[in-house]
Amino acid sequence: MSLEILRNLPFSRWASLGLLVLLAGAWFLPSSKLYHQLLIALLWLPALLALLRSDFRALLWQPELLLFVALALWTLLVLLIKGGAEPVSAAKMPFYVGLSLLGIMLAALDKRYTLESQLRFVTLLGGILAALSVLYFYLSGPHAPDQRLIAIGLWDTAIMAAHAVGALAVLGVFLLRGAEVRPWLWPLLLTAAAGYLMFLGLSQTRGVWLAMIAVLLAVRPTRGSVLLVLSLVLSVILLWLCVPELFLQRGLSYRPVLFMGGLHLLEQNLWLGLGFNPYEIAVPATGDFYKHPHNLYLDLAIRLGLPGLLLFVALWACVAWRGWQSREQPIGRALLALWLFSSVALLTDGIGLWLKPNADWLITWLPIALSLVLAVKRKEAGL
Length: 383
Hints:
Layout: H1 2-8, H2 10-24, H3 32-50, H4 54-57, H5 63-82, H6 87-107, H7 115-139, H8 158-176, H9 186-202, H10 206-218, H11 223-242, H12 245-250, H13 255-268, E1 281-283, E2 288-290, H14 296-325, H15 330-349, H16 365-380
Antiparallel strand pairs: 1-2
């Protein structure tokens, strides 16, 4: 009965708008400041108000949220001991993320639209905007030879844009599998599919290519998944034949060197890490210095020490288990696929966990939020 009351309150409808802004607002908004302000007003504020209700608070006793709280408390402890360049700003991040997780849980209670329908709409919109991004990028004038494809709007960093677009593509594929599609939607779906393929193929983000192939090969093979893998492989081969210097110039992008340098930093700060202080990893071959190892797990360990990494791994494993428990549901299968995509992508291109809302939230915090939603569904079903 309490869940039915929550579904009829305006908080959930309010939070649904916030979820839409979180996942699609970056395509349209002119500045990150406005993006964050809208999230405060439409996602975090209804979550705060919902916390005043005991029936909503009763939903929060889930393993995912308890592990998140443990990770957040450890983060604040490390920040207190080790400090950081902007300690006040860093201290706010666990609260921002926590409110976002609660806001997505609240949006999933919206009586008018299920979370699945909300996500299907966002992924359809994302594919169309990915196609527009490709057209805009290549029609907007000459670019520098090393300029990589970015999205229109705020996702203006190549790797993070590819992460967000890849996450939306994965969700779209698995949420639409087996769903009844009205005939008038097919042109939009085909446009969205073409947009995702073009954007991801031209993004030159090899970590995302590996993540997509891992997802498509890990799930039960179907004619559609095999065709999609072949399309991705053919796109890469075509890119190699047309512009081979893109691959020759970038090689492995010094990932092995950065990884070993990151391990050396971790060995020196094994238990408490470096906190939120800036650090650099040298690449002797070029004389350059990098601000992170391009590996989220290693970056997290460097900043929060081994205990922080273990807490995140426990939380991440809990998400995988939740998706596996709910694999018979479309949202459960979509979560498993997104978890696998994110896990692989973050191995080679993850830049940090506790950052302000950005494109990488779709492969870090969104899977955890979906896991919480499934936990509530199972609790409601008495499982």
